[in-house]
Amino acid sequence: MLPFSPPHIHQDIIDEVVATLRSGWITTGPRTKQFEKDLTAYCGNKATICLNSATAGLEIMLRWFGVGPGDEVIVPAYTYSATANVVMHCGATPVFCDVNPDDFNINPEEIRKKITAKTKVVMPVDFAGFPCDYHAINALVASAEIKALFAANNEQQKQLGRILILADAAHSIGAMMNGMRTGSLTDVSVFSFHAVKNLTTAEGGAVALNLPAPFDNEAVYKYLCIATLHGQNKDALAKMQKGNWRYDIIEPGYKCNMTDIMAAIGLVELRRYESEILPKRKQITAWYNELLGQTQWAQLPVSNTANRTSSWHLYPLRIRGIDEATRDRIMQDIFDRDVSVNMHFIPLPLLKFYHEQGYRMEDYPQAYANYACEISLPLYEDLSREQVEQVAQAVIRAVELNARPGIPKI
Ligand SMILES: *Cc1c(COP(=O)(O)O)cnc(C)c1O
User: Residue 300 gets which letter from DSSP?
Assistant: First the structure.
């Protein structure tokens, strides 16, 4: 069985993890701090904090901005549940927004329609690694008409004076828009280093701060170090310094710091990211485009436009003209041919919890249309050209055999 997304464990990763284990320091310490510096240098943003997940990073930033009961946060209907779950954790209301027909990302015009005086944050998701239209999204929240609606009710909200853009960049580290990398495209971006993501630390995430003046991003970084470590005014490394044992708790903080063992993996992966990981992902995407682009039914994913390039995290193939049941049959047939595929994502209104909250799929027709005909193909560094051909053949055979007669045969 060809797996969907196995981890690639390089000898350098093993060596760096072993060196960390032997170093006498395994939790947040020098390697985590180095990884944060390297990420900031790579992405071109202002400061970065590493945490144990993207989910923790998204939630802590909502809380930093003071999001709570009565507030609204706009999220795409088409995303992984973590994007909306963190809004629920804060007691605020997720407002779902429909997506684009071409690239699966949140539709800026739909965002405009969803903004109210209660909107505090918009959380765009760079689906499959392709950056959202931050040009349009940043301009929208900075426009006089939308700013006039914004009701600031704490210090952070007053300083920003508008809706915060908190990008769920779980898929998109290394992706670019107008020559700039994700992390530097909007106010705050949150990366995931989960095992299946492009750059992994097994579990992990990072908050890339890029707040405009008058924010002091370094000061926000220092506050976040405390807020994500019990609210303690010194971290474990500082407390270990000679005679420096006394600490204080300045707020009832969370506990979601990154360990140096995780950072050890990340340091090695980031060094290989531009030179090895991204080029291979781009190559595999090009192979699929070449092999599937010959059919009439394949709608290839958008990963490269005049001003934006993807991080090639997923290959979300769409099959023209099929319904959901046919897609499911095609997926089963592909599995029966010993190729693992996947589906990204089941739109939030179709999930039990969100359905029970009253969200309805018919209100997000494009999200449903994208979902009903989507199949994600394996995309990872260790795939060979032969394996990509094997996947493409399995997909082509499965579509030919299972698609309704309306689908043109190739
Ligand atoms: C993976 C993922 C997350 C969550 O990342 P974690 O690091 O597992 O918390 C959030 N949003 C999207 C779109 C994801 O794919």
Answer: P
Q: Are residue 306 and residue 209 in the same domain, yes or no?
A: no
Model pLDDT for residues 162-197, shown as the tens digit of each residue: 999 999 999 999 999 999 999 999 999 999 999 999
313 and 241 within one domain: no
Tokens 């993807």 correspond to: 310
Residue 5 lies in a domain: no
Residue 409 counted as domain residue: no
pLDDT tens track for 386-397? 999 999 999 999
Do 248 and 289 lie in one domain? The reply is no
Residue that is last in its domain, among 222, 238, 271: 271
- If you measure from the C-alpha of residue 269 to the centroid of ligand 1, how many angstroms do you get, rounded to a whole number? 18
Is the same domain home to 121 and 266? yes
Q: Using an 8 Å Cβ cutoff, are 121 and 188 in contact?
A: no
**331 shares a domain with 253:** no
Comparing CA positions, the residue from 364, 271, 343, 351 lying closest to residue 31 is 271
Render pLDDT for 264-289 as a digit per residue (tens, 0 to 9): 999 999 999 999 999 999 999 999 99
Return the best residue to mutate from 125, 130, 168, 189 for the ligand 1 pocket (most ligand atoms within 8 A of CB).
168
Instruction: For residue 286, give its domain range.
Output: 273-402
Judgement on whether residues 294 and 267 belong to the same structural domain of the protein: no
Residue 268 CA to ligand 1 center (angstroms) comes to 21
Residues 241 and 201 in one domain: yes
CB count within 10 Å of CB 251 equals 12
Task: Please tell me the distance between residue 190's alpha carbon and the centre of ligand 1 in angstroms.
Answer: 9
What's the CA-to-centroid distance between 84 and ligand 1, angstroms?
Answer: 11
Mind listing the pLDDT tens digit for each residue in 342-355? Answer: 999 999 999 999 99
The binding-site residues of ligand 1, defined as CB within 6 angstroms of any ligand atom, are 53-55, 79-80, 82-83, 125, 168, 170-171, 192, 194, 205
- Alpha-carbon distance of 96 to 78, in angstroms, equals 9
In a domain, 410, yes or no: no
Pocket probe for ligand 1: among 49, 55, 254, 262, the residue whose CB has the most ligand atoms within 8 Å is: 55
At 403, the pLDDT band (50, 70, 90 cuts) reads confident
- Residue in 87, 192, 262, 345 to alter for ligand 1 test, most ligand atoms within 8 A of Cβ: 192
284 CA from centroid of ligand 1 (Å): 23
Max Cα–Cα distance, the chain, nearest Å: 78
- The structure's pTM equals 0.97
CA-wise closest residue to 212 among 141, 273, 269, 301: 141
Residues 236 and 315 reside in one and the same domain: no
